[in-house]
Structures are given as structure tokens and as C-alpha cells.
Amino acid sequence: MHFETIAIHDGNTPESCTGSVTPPVYQTSTFARPSLDERGEFFYSRIGNPTRSALESTLALLENGKHATTFASGVAAMMAAMQVLKPGDHVVSSLDVYGGSYRIFEQLMRPWGVETSYAASEATESYIECIRPETRMIWIESPSNPLLQICDIRALAEIANERGIVLAVDNTFASPYFQRPLDLGAHIVVHSTTKYLGGHSDVIGGAVVASDDNLNLTIRNYQGAAGAIPGPWDCWLISRGIKTLKIRMEEHQKNALHLARALEKHPAVSRVIYPGLESHPQHELAKRQMSGFGGMLTIALKGGLPAVRKMIESLKLFVIADSLGGVESLVASPARMTLGPLSQAERDRRACTDDLVRLSIGLENAEDLEADLLQALATI
């Protein structure tokens, strides 16, 4: 079946008892056992819940994976993926990664005995240079946050397979509609389902998708043992969001491309970063491994932080917020918000400069969004 058919129908068959077209929310902590010596498929909601299982089935199919495991947040999902590591192992990560991912590497994994080296996100050779004998995982975001750099997933998968390394891809920005890393050779795909999969800025969640049975067993065991599970209402909301994922992603992309082209011409803008623009350094790579370019774009302003502050605070439709991927347009300063807790030296190393503005383009009318951006830029 096609993507949108799976998104609407898998895990969403009419409920057998009443015929309800919308699947029920199984808001229960425990399930009755048939007898002392028997138990059904579901017996305790930390271990399994029908609402959660329906979501996991859909996510696995959408990513062309065999297994999906859901969690209470995107970083909880990342921590689950990290369970394939042990003290003494080494990770090679993209340099341009989400601040929460960086904190996991440096504040949680390093004290546990797992070291991380950071490679130039867009340069495959940089990952090779960072690999050690003890390297067990390559962790990438593509497109990355906030610089929208593109990693060559297929090339990195070949390198990982040659060396017995697990390749994990954070696919949050692209969504499974625009990119399927498992098809390109990745071993693990991670999502913050808070973002495009949920799509309405009303739920927090995460997911890990894999096809390897042993990897899945490690991740699934962690889910039950650590209890970092999403509640059934959270799963229901994400499942509801997935039903319109195709339509939303196409509109996000259409609006983002329209605005990226308009902003490239603006005298106050020194740079527009969007994989769908021919000016993007990895535009051809993005075309090869993605079926679309997503709804995120980043711009740099000529006036630095004062210009950023003036522009952001003058916007009327764009909401100043730390998240992304919702139906409404959001704006953030990476240097002051999402990566604000990092030291100035670390932000400099990542090229997260004060002049950057990250835009999560929503589903409003593109002309209205353009008018809002132009009036805000005119105040600088």
C-alpha cells in the first residue's frame, strides 16, 4: 500500500466490540488475566498497551522497518537507542546536532564511560577520520538542527557495515514521508514524535524503529525496564496526527520553499539555508536520498544578534517557541534558545552564530507568512 493509506488504516481498524471507526484509548494500568496461570497479550501497560501497540505498528510500516518502540519523549527514545552501547564504547556523532542529543552524549553517556567524537556533519571523510577500534555507533541528524546539513546516509551505512558499527539516524526533520533511512542502509531510526509525526504542538513523544531483531530486543527490553513509555492518550494523539502526515508535509515543504526563495533576495538576509534551494551545498545529495525537503529553514541576518532580536520580536504570525513541526509557524534563535545552554566556545565550534534564525514553517497561507517576515525584516 501507499504511504498515506498505511498512515490512515494501519492500527486503525474499527474496534471489534462496538464498531467504533476511531480506535479507543485504552486508559488503563492493568488488564484482567483469564486465570492464575494465564495472561493475555496485554497484562500491564508499562509492558504493553493496545493504543501504544497500534502506533508502533504504524510507525514501523511507515519507516519500512520491522519493529518500532515508542517512548515518552524524543530524548527518551535516543537513550533507548544508546542501550546498544556499553562502557568503553565510542560514538561518532554529527557536530551539528540537537542540543538535547549533545547533552546526552556529554552529561549522561560520557560519565557512564562512552566517549563521543564529533564529525563535520556534511563530510563523510570526517566520520572515517573519527572512527576508532572501539567505535560502536555513528549517530547522525539529516537534515541537521539547526544548520540543515545533509549526511550521505548510504555512504555512512556502507562504512558502518564494513566495520560492524551501528548507524543511527535522527529522522525528525525529514519525517518518514520525505526520507526512509532504513532503506538507505541505516540500522536504527529515531524520531521525536513531538514534531511532524504528532504535528499539532500538543503532545510529547519519541520512537525508535529498527529491523534487526537483536537491536530491537535491546531497545524493547529497555522500554519495559526503564518505563520511559508514552501514555495512551499521547499515543492516540500521535496516531491521529500521522493520518494527515502526507498532506501536512507537502504543505510545509511548499510554504518553506516559497519563503526560502523570497528571503534569498532580501537585502537584510546574508544567507538562506534550505536543502530545496540550488544554493544549498548538499542540494544534489538531498535530491538523491530524500523525496522532499521539509518545512525547516534557517537564515542569517546581516545585522547579527541585534537584528535577530528586532526581527523575531516584530513577527506577528510566527510564534517564538523552542519546538518545531507544528501546524503553526514558529521562530527561534538557536544561539539564544535551543543551543543557549552550550558555552560560547562550543557554539562557535558548531558555527551556531548569533545571526541565525530558525524558522519552522507552518500551514498558514504562504503569502501571509511572507508578508509577516517582510514587515519584521523592515524593522531592522
From TrEMBL:
InterPro entries: Cys/Met-Metab_PyrdxlP-dep_enz (IPR000277), PyrdxlP-dep_Trfase (IPR015424), PyrdxlP-dep_Trfase_major (IPR015421), PyrdxlP-dep_Trfase_small (IPR015422). GO terms for cellular component: cytoplasm. Keywords: Pyridoxal phosphate. GO terms for molecular function: carbon-sulfur lyase activity; pyridoxal phosphate binding. Pfam families: Cys_Met_Meta_PP. The modification N6-(pyridoxal phosphate)lysine is found at K195. GO terms for biological process: methionine biosynthetic process; transsulfuration. Its cofactor is pyridoxal 5'-phosphate. Belongs to the trans-sulfuration enzymes family. This is Trans-sulfuration enzyme family protein. It comes from Chlorobaculum tepidum (strain ATCC 49652 / DSM 12025 / NBRC 103806 / TLS) (Chlorobium tepidum). The lineage of its organism: Bacteria, Pseudomonadati, Chlorobiota, Chlorobiia, Chlorobiales.
